Amino acid sequence: MVELKQLLRGKLVLYGLAFLLLLLVYAVAQNPRPLVQSLAGELSDVYYSFNSRQPPPELVFLEIENDSVRQFGRWPWQRKILAEGLQRLEQAEVIGLDMLFSEATRARHDLALTQTLAQLPVIGGLFLNGPMSSALDKAAWNTLADSALLGAQHSGLIASERIELPTQHIREALPLLAALNITADEDQLFRHYPVAFQVHDLVLPNLAVQMWRLAKQQDVQLSAEHASLGAQHLPVDAQARLRLNFYSTDSWQRITFAELMQDDWQAERVAGRIVLVGISEAGVTDIRATPLGQIPGPLIHLTLLGNLLDGSLLTPINGLQLFSLMCVSLLIGIWTWQLSLPVIRIAVWGLQAVVLCVLGLVAYKYFNLWLEVFYPIVLLFLWLVLGEAWLFRINTAETRYLRNAFSSYVAPTLVNKLVQRGEDLHLGGQRQQITALFTDLRDFTPTTEALDTEVLVQHLNAYFGLMINRLHRYQGTLDKLIGDAVMALFNAPLADEDHAYHACLAAAAMMQALEKFNRRWPDDPIRQLRMGVGINTGEAIVGNIGAAGRFNYTAIGDAVNIAARLESATKEVQQQWQQLPAAQRPCQRVDILIGEATYDAVKDRLPCYPIEGLVLKGKSQPLPAWVLDWQKMVRDSVL
C-alpha cells in the first residue's frame, strides 16, 4: 500500500513537471532568442523548398544587374538615363522604385527625372535612417502625410526617429512615397515583412503595401486587434509584420534595364503590370539572406505583392492553437511512456516527431499555415528524457539507492538516518541555505617530489582520514576530494540549523588535528603539511548532479565559489598579515577565512577579525571577510 502511494505521488510529481515543461517551451516559442529561432528555422524553413507556386504574371522585376552596369557604368547612374528608361514603362499599372534620390545632381538631369516621374504612376522610396525626422520642414511633413495610412493604429509598429527623403523636387513629382526598409529576424534571416512604420504621428506603409494601394485602390486597416488590406485579412504579428511565402528565386519574370533600353523594346511587355525597379548587381550590396539563400532585396517587396495577389499569405499557428497542439503532443507522449519496452517507446516517439514534421508541411503546402514544428518536437524530446529518467528511478531499489548515494559522503552513523528519512531528501537538486568549506594544502609540491609514490599516498591517506573524521564529528558532509583539497558541505543532506557554527568548529578542529599530525615529524619539514581553509554561507543548488548511473552529490552556486576563493586568499592575506607589526596583528596566523553570512552567524560566539579591501579572484568588488582565530578557540576549549 505504501509503495502504491509512493508510486502515485511520484507520477503526480512527474505529470506536474511535464506541465511545467509545456509552459516553459510555450513561453520560449512566444519570445524565442536568436539561437532558438535559428534552430527552429533550420527545421521549418525546409517547407519553402516544397513551394511549387509561380509568382503571379502581373509582377515584373526590372533589375539593374551586371549587364546593365557594364553598359551604363557603375551605379549610381546619371538621372537622365533613369528618366529615359522609366518613360518606356508608361503602360505599366504601377511602378515602384526601390531606390532613393536623396541628393541633388546636375540640374538638367534632375529636371529630366522629375518631369518623367510626374507623368507616371510611380511610388518613390524613403529610408528610415539618416537625419532626425524632427528637422523636416512643413512641406516635407505635408508630403509624408499624403502618403501615410489614415486611421491606422497599432502600438507595436516599428518606430523611427530618423528619416531620409528624396530631394524636394523629386518627392513633389512623386504621387506617393513608401518606406524601403525591411527587417531581419533575430537570426539575421529575412522572413517577415513590416506592413508599416511609425514616424511620430504618421504611419508610413512599406513599398509593397503602397504599390498595392495605388494599383488596387484598396486601403489598409490596421489596429491592435485587426489588420486587412481591402477585403484581404493580414495575419500580422505583434510588430505588424507578415510572414513571407517565398517563391523560387529563378521563377520571377525579370527584365534587365539593358533590355529596356534596346531600340526594339516593346512597351506591351509591361502593359497593365506592376513593375518594381531595383538593383540586383552584387557590387551594390542590396542582397538579403533568406531561407532560400541570398536574393536581391527588391524581390522581398515583390514576394509580398505576389502573396497578396495569389492569396498565399502565411498564417502562423500560434497562441492557443500552438498550445493546444503541444498539449496533444504531450498527452500522446505520456501514453507512449507507459509502454513497457524502451525500444518500442523510443520508436513511437520518433514516429510522432516525423508525423509532426509532415503535419507542418501539409499545413504549409495546402492550407497556407505556418507551424514551427521545432517547439512541439522539443517538448516531446524533453518529456522523453524526463519520463525515462523517472522510470530509471522507480526501477532502482530506494534503500540501496540511498545507501550508495550517501555512504561515501557522511558519517556511517548517519547513513541509517538517511535511509529512514528518505522522504525528507530531494534528490536531483534543490535550492537551499548551506555552508561550504574548502581546504587546500600550501606548498605541497616539494613534498610530492621528495617522497616515493607509495609513501606519499600513505601520507595523504593519513591526512585525509583526520580531516574527514573532524568533518563527520561536526555533521559535515564530504562532497569530494580534489587532489590534495577537500570540499565539504554543512546543512546537506540532513538539516542542521547551526550549520555555519559547526563548519567553523570543524575547520578549527581540522587545523588542530593537522598541528598534531605535523608533530609526528618534528625534524622532517618535508612531511609537515600546511593548510588553508575557506568557509562561506549562502544559497546554493544542492543534490545529485550528473547522469543516470554516474552522479555526484554536490552543491553549485556563487556561495560555493566564494568559499573556494576565500580558501585561495588565505595565503595572500597571511603574507600581508606578516608584514604588520606583531602588536597590530589580532592573531599570529591566517589559516581560516570566513564570509559575511558565516560571520553573522558566529560573531557572538567565536573570535573573528575583519579583513579590509579583500578582492577575491573573479570578483570586481571587495567582499567582506574575517579571519577565524582557531588557536584562540583551542585555548578557550571551544572545540
From TrEMBL:
UniProt domain Guanylate cyclase: residue ranges: 435-567
Top enzyme category: lyase
EC number, as in UniProt: 4.6.1.-
Pfam family, one: Guanylate_cyc
Molecular function, one GO term: lyase activity
Residues in the signal sequence: none
Residues annotated as transmembrane: 12-29, 320-339, 346-367, 373-392
Gene3D superfamilies tied to this protein: Nucleotide cyclase
Protein name stated in the entry: Adenylate/guanylate cyclase domain-containing protein
This protein's UniProt keywords: Lyase, Membrane, Transmembrane, Transmembrane helix
Record InterPro entries: A/G_cyclase, Adenylyl/Guanylyl_Cyclase_3/4, CHASE2, Nucleotide_cyclase
Keyword Transmembrane part of the UniProt annotation: yes
Keyword check for Membrane: yes
